[in-house]
Amino acid sequence: MDKRVTLKLNSGTLCTGFSAILQIGDEGSAPEVEMLGSLPAAPTLNSLYQQWQVAYRHLDMPSRIKANMDGFATNVSIVGDCYELAARLADTFNQWLRSASFRPIQEKLLEQLTPESTIRLILQTPHGIVQRLPWHLWEICDRYPKLEITLSASTYQKASDRTLTPRPQIRILAVIGHSQGLDIQTDQNLLNRLPNAEVKFLTQPDRPTLDEHLWDPQGWDILFFAGHSITKAAKSPRSPKGSKGYLHINETDVLTIEQLKNALRSALTHGLKIVIFNSCDGLGLAQSLADLQISQVLVMREPVPDKVAHAFLKSFLTVFSQGSPLILAVREAREKLQGLETKYPCAAWLPTLYQNPAEIPPTWESLLHPTEPTPRAQSSITVREAAPLAPVSSRLLVHALTVTLLLALRYLGLFQLQEFQAFDQFMRMRPQELPDARLVVVTVTNADVEAQDPEDRRGSLADSALSATLNTLNEMEPRLIGLDIYRDYSARANQPALANALKEQNNLYAVCKGSDQDLTDGISAPPEVPSNRVGFSDFLADTDGIVRRQMYSIAQEPASSCQSAYAIGTLLALDYLATEGVSAAVDSETGALKVGDTSLQPLEENDGGYRNIDDGGYQLLLNYRSLANPEQIADQVTLEQLLSGEVSAEVIRDRIVLIGTKTNGFYADNWLTPYGETRGVFMQAHIISQLLSAVLDDRPLLRYWPEWGESLWILFWAGSGSLMAIALSSDRTHFSRKLALALLASELLLFGGCWLLFSRFYLWVPWVPAAIAPLLVAASTPLTQPLSNRSAPHLSQPTLQ
Predict the structure, then answer these.
(1) pLDDT, tens digit (0-9, with 9 covering 90-100), for 272-313
(2) Between the ranges 351-360, 363-372, 421-430, where is the mean pLDDT highest?
(3) For the chain, what is the mean pLDDT?
(4) What burial letters (b/e) apply to 203-228, b meaning 16+ CB within 10 Å?
């Protein structure tokens, strides 16, 4: 009998660990076995995966992503790094799964499953990084040759009733998208050789044509796409949580699944069962299709070389069309890719199947001869018999339910904006600090721009002006220079000295901008500046537009014009610290970046007051210097003052000099902070200052409790409200007045405690939900008074039910 196993990892993160639920049953039936377990924290997995991903994406393998990965250096070292990081990741991953808290689940699998069974093991989790881990390398897969691990969203439902029409042939809609540099003809030949199949090819269709065919009332059994695609991580909290997939259907049109939602729903209603993306980086596409309850989605989780895409498609279609179950066809085709890994490292890591657990996977035969689905037993969760409820008062029970609801609403992000506002208020209430004497900012003003020759100027700074600026600064001996002005063009031919300075001056760093919704391809760095002296300038604004966190590093998208893995502020700070004899390295135990004795713990999606944010890259809370105006972070001089000789060399000597604009126009570089609006160059100064101060001055980074600690904090204040309400309820005459005074004192104490923890110990604790908790509990108290007590307020001791 075929088996279906579900492993749910819905609660937790890699930094805190996961609670795990295992369900085992026959395919098509309710689970017969359920047990609980847990996986411990494994922060190194996140770091190792990102390192492997960077190494893999730097291999020079023309792939089915939007732009070929030209320009990446390929050498033995990079290939070796990819192999070595893959081995380390696989070893660390299996050590994690061998942990003592997870061992009972492994033992239950070994007890319940037999090697002869066809086993569909569904990993159900919303966490993108967990979905990307190499689950096919789990040691248990070697014990069961007919087991395949597939992915699923954390929520799903059975698709609505469909029109099931027997057809003489399986209908396949094959969309051939933008395919510059790809061999798409091989894909077409493989599809044309399928038995009992009618294939309709759409080559680089426009959007109306694609939409029209998806709405075809005859329906399609399989939707196939080959061409360029990409998954982009949501860099802005304004974007939906997680990642989004993009299809390049022709040279100019790029579509998301959301833009095809209605047409895909129509295709689903008319029988669509399988979607195959033989293209790059498709997890974002699969996650979007999961919302539409598509039964089976087959994707490549990373950029895929042409040869690998062809080899997998050929093996999969051959085995599946010959009658093999879908999951076994995927496993066999994936395992055959191992033979290509000498030339294409980690090829067998790429294919993955994303499933709707409410649907039984189709076979080639069932696609030809569909039948009306039989009612399926509702999936249920086996719950151990609860212990008898201890006798408690009805008031305490309602209090407990009230607090549970409050915690649930906080987990869903209902209070996130209010917690942001509290964070800003505590930030502004901190004692004033002095500017950072290690920094100086050279600003290009409107007057500076107007003073330049318009024929020579490109952007805010002409080549001649930049050359003169660098010459003047170099005479004053700054330690480092950061050019925070976009310059995606070469120096003019009449400025060879500038070109040479950009190329050879080792203390000079420049910026680029990663791709985003506004600039699809980003902005490249000055061509002369070596890549090791280029940092990205991107910031992360929260939903209200205020910057409270910063990416210190990120794996850029392969198609981006900006390929720097580190922010310019990170590079300047680390270079400065290196001259002070302080080195930086990744902590092998925690996965955090350790600079000297200071550990930089990255921000996770539910840390502090954040809920379900995109935590891609290496993010930290931004501990601004407490100043009346964020531009007071460092001494300022204008470009005119510098070039006219008004600036003393002592102002510049041995400092980090940042050059940026305060002009109107050009590229918008205004950002909101808890202290007000400022320009990007001053934001960079705060980022650099935070890192230098944490390492050299022992100025703490902002911290927060783990999620369980924050929940206990909220429960404590809710408990105080409950105790006050119960203690004061004996005096019904003055109950409301006394309770109001007690709550006021409690709220003042809470606010003062939160402010003290933030300003003195740099600890961000929940204030908003903790303040609401006792008020809600107290408000629910009259509703839980016994009926007899309501009619007899003179009783001194109300009876508790």
Answers:
(1) 999 999 888 788 888 888 888 888 999 998 888 889 999 999
(2) 421-430
(3) 85
(4) ebbeeeebbebbeeeebbbbbbbbbb
- No. of helices (H) and no. of strands (E), the chain: 25, 30
Task: Decide if pLDDT at 378 tops 80.
Answer: no
Total residues found in the chain within this entry: 801
What burial letters (b/e) apply to 432-450, b meaning 16+ CB within 10 Å?
eeebbebbbbbbbbeebbe
The per-residue DSSP string of 38-97 comes to EE---HHHHHHHHHHHHHHHTS---BSSSS--TT----HHHHHHHHHHHHHHHHHHHHHH
Whole-number Å distance between alpha carbons of 632 and 647: 18
Cβ contact 620:549 at 8 Å? yes
In order of 226, 301, 312, 316, 328, the CA distances from 319 in angstroms are: 20, 21, 11, 5, 9
The answer to whether the CB of 616 falls within 8 A of the CB of 732 is no
Helix (H) or strand (E) holding 554: none
Q: Two tokens at 225?
A: 């796409």
Which runs of consecutive H residues, i.e. helices, occur in 174-276? Answer: 185-192, 207-214, 261-269
Non-local (6+) Cβ contacts of 248 within 8 A are 66, 177, 178, 227, 228, 229, 254
Question: CA–CA distance from 582 to each of 108, 595, 635, 744, 783 (Å)?
Answer: 49, 7, 25, 49, 62
Region 200-229: mean pLDDT is: 92
3-state SS, residue 523: strand
Residues with Cβ < 8 Å from 773, sequence gap 6 or more?
403, 406, 714, 715, 717, 718, 721
What is the rounded average pLDDT of the residues 139-161?
86
Euclidean distance between CA atoms 282 and 276, whole angstroms = 10
User: What torsion do the CA atoms of 103, 107, 108, 109 make, to the nearest 10 degrees?
Assistant: 100
Rounded to whole angstroms, how far apart are CA atoms 349 and 59? 15
pLDDT tens, position by position, 50-86: 888 888 887 766 555 544 333 333 344 667 778 888 9
What confidence category does residue 162 fall into, taking pLDDT thresholds of 50, 70 and 90? low
What is the C-alpha separation between 31 and 26, in angstroms, rounded? Answer: 7
- Whether the per-residue pLDDT at 520 is higher than 80: the answer is no
Q: Which helix (H) or strand (E) holds 160?
A: none
Q: CA-to-CA distance for 642 and 637, rounded, in angstroms? A: 7
- Contact assessment for residue 512 and residue 527, using Cβ atoms and an 8 Å cutoff: no
Nearest in space to 500 (alpha carbons), one of 478, 534, 480, 530:
530
**Is residue 152 helix, strand or coil?**
strand
